[in-house]
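Researcher: Please predict.
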Amino acid sequence: MPATGPASGGEPVLAASVPLFAAASSHYATAGGAYAPRLVTLDEAFAGVDDDSRAKCLGLLRAFDLDVVMTSEREWACHPQVPGIAIAQLSRVDDIDAVLVTRWEWDGGERRRGTEPGARADAFAAAAGAGDSGEGADGPVSASGEPGRAVVDSSGGQGALWT
């Protein structure tokens, strides 16, 4: 597949991205630390690329064990090839000097509303006084004693706790 010239569906993006991901992974492999970040930043990297190809590229990022921060107007990275991701959706309105940040989490199968930073701090405080009940003042606490939130499935039952 040529990286230049006539192509469709974002083929030039894919042809250039795969070797760059491999090179980044190879470079980071020399870091020596098992927990060293392996950061790649992408700005609209998959614009014009079809859904299936974007999912495959995101799967490659995982296969290369790269940590990714990306911007996109429409890519949420919620594909089965991605086992988990934190999403910050930024929204703004003309003539208002503020940006609304809505947090989401993808667990490899379902996208859910994420925990807001202020709520998390409140949950930590509640967990400190929760005792062994498994409930803090503001909700459930995980088995490790850390705050969590109940995940409610579509049938209305309580699912696992997230921390």
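Model: The helical segments are 11-28, 51-63, 117-128.
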